[in-house]
Structure formats: structure tokens, C-alpha cells
């Protein structure tokens, strides 16, 4: 048949069995790309799905140039997704997804442009990893948590030892404070356990009494 032209809103005369009207939706279409099995450049098998946002910019081309533009766009999206992700490493796929999304959008848009299609956005939705890779990531995350916990504990021990060192320096300058602290500790223990504690008299105190008795 022959294309008579694109019609906008309004009333038009269509001759039965002679003319055929094809409606083209000009709104943005949200199309889910089914999960694709991909092997990344570093030989990791993954399953990836995506979503594509596009709209018809030229209704005449979408009817004349391609038979079913939605199906064709879906096929282009699937093959492009497998091709681009097959050239990327797993770390890029997980950490640099925005860059890959942009690359996918540009390529799919260029390939569908002759059909009057404008692809505005392509988003990778889910990346399904093998169980072995998931377990490896879990072990790595656990090791990282343990490493951070050890650093925190080491920092706490360092601060505690620093405080003890400072306290030791103070006590070394004032020996009597050690005896007072000793008596205070014994008093606290006796109060908690309701018991009598016998402890030796300090040598310095005994020496004082002996010297006084010798003088007498």
C-alpha cells in the first residue's frame, strides 16, 4: 500500500477495504528487557535485566521503515546489552553502572533512529551473580568488618595504655599516693565482701618505728 500521510487529532474519512488506519502512540514507552545471560570480560557469568524508555518521534518512519517497532527495539536492546556487558569487567558493572547505562542509551538510540524512535534512557535493573561469587563477596565483607573491629580495639588499647602510662608517671612522683590507693582498694573490697582483710605493714612505716625504738 501507499502511505497517504500522518494525521493528527480530528475526524477523517476512511474508505472501507481501501484505506487502513494505523494508530501510533506518541507517549513514552517503558519496556522491560528480559534477563540476559552474559559472560563479562573477566569470565564471570551473570544474568542482567534492564529497562528502556523510548518514544516515537516520526510516526511515518515507525510504520514504513519497520514492521513492529516495539519488538524490533526490544531485540536491539537485548543484543546491545549482551554485547556491551560482555566487554566490561564485573567491577565496572557493579561500580560504574551509570557510565554503562549511558553507553547503552547512545548505541540503542543510534540503531533505532532510522525507525523514528528516540531512546531517552536505559537503566540496568538487576545483576544476578553466581552463588560462588556471592559467597566470596560475603567473606570479603566479613573480613573487612573484622579488620575495622581490630583497628578500633587496637586504638582503644593504645589509649588505655597511654592513660596507664600517664598515671604511672604521676604515682612515681608521689609514692605516698600508691599506698593511699592501696588502702582505698582494700576498703572497697572489704565493704563488698563483708570480710576482714589482713595485709602487711609497709616496710617504710616499720623502719620508722624501729628507728624510734633504737633511739630510746
Describe what you observe in this structure:
This protein has 2 domains: 105 residues, 2-Layer Sandwich (Tetrahydropterin Synthase, Chain A), CATH 3.30.479; 49 residues, no CATH class. A 3-stranded antiparallel sheet has the order 1-2-3, with helices on one face. The termini are far apart. It has 216 residues and is an alpha+beta fold. The chain is 56% helix and 16% strand. The mean pLDDT is 78. α2 crosses α4. This is Band 7 domain-containing protein. Belongs to the band 7/mec-2 family.
Summarize the biggest pleated sheet: 3 strands, antiparallel
Share of β-strand residues? 15-25%
Write out the strand line-up for the largest beta sheet, numbering strands in chain order: 1-2-3
Query: Number of helix segments?
Result: 7
Q: How does the helix and strand content classify structurally?
A: alpha+beta
CATH topology of the largest domain: Tetrahydropterin Synthase, Chain A
Order of helices and strands: EEHHHHEHHH
CATH architecture heading of the largest domain: 2-Layer Sandwich
Number of strands: 3
By CATH reckoning, the class of the largest domain would read: Alpha Beta
| Cα Rg | 41 Å
Helix content: 55-70%
Give the overall shape: rod-shaped
Average predicted local confidence, pLDDT: 78
Instruction: Return the domain count.
Output: 2
> Which ranges are low-confidence, i.e. pLDDT below 50, for 5 or more consecutive residues?
none
The CATH H-level superfamily of the largest domain is: Band 7 domain
**Roughly how many Å apart are the termini?**
139 Å
Amino acid at each position: 500500500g501507499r502511505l497517504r500521510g500522518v494525521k493528527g487529532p480530528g475526524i477523517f474519512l476512511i474508505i472501507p477495504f481501501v484505506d487502513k488506519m494505523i494508530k501510533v502512540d506518541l507517549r513514552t514507552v517503558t519496556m522491560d528487557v528480559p534477563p540476559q545471560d552474559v559472560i563479562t570480560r573477566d569470565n564471570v557469568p551473570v544474568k542482567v535485566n534492564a529497562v528502556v524508555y523510548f518514544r516515537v518521534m516520526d510516526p511515518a518512519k515507525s510504520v514504513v521503515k519497520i514492521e513492529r517497532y516495539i519488538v524490533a527495539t526490544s531485540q536491539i536492546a537485548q543484543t546491545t546489552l549482551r554485547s556491551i556487558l560482555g566487554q566490561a569487567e564485573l567491577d565496572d558493572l557493579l561500580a560504574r553502572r551509570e557510565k554503562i547505562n549511558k553507553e547503552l542509551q547512545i548505541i540503542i538510540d543510534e540503531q533505532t533512529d532510522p525507525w523514528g524512535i528516540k531512546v531517552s534512557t536505559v537503566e540496568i535493573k538487576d545483576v544476578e551473580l553466581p552463588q560462588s561469587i556471592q559467597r566470596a563477596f560475603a567473606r570479603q565483607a566479613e573480613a573487612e568488618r573484622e579488620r575495622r573491629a581490630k583497628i578500633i580495639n587496637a586504638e582503644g588499647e593504645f589509649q588505655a595504655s597511654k592513660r596507664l602510662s600517664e598515671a604511672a608517671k604521676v604515682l612515681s612522683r608521689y609514692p605516698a599516693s600508691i599506698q593511699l590507693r592501696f588502702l582505698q582498694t582494700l576498703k572497697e573490697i572489704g565493704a563488698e565482701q563483708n570480710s576482714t582483710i589482713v595485709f602487711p605493714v609497709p616496710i617504710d612505716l616499720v623502719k620508722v618505728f624501729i628507728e624510734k625504738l633504737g633511739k630510746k
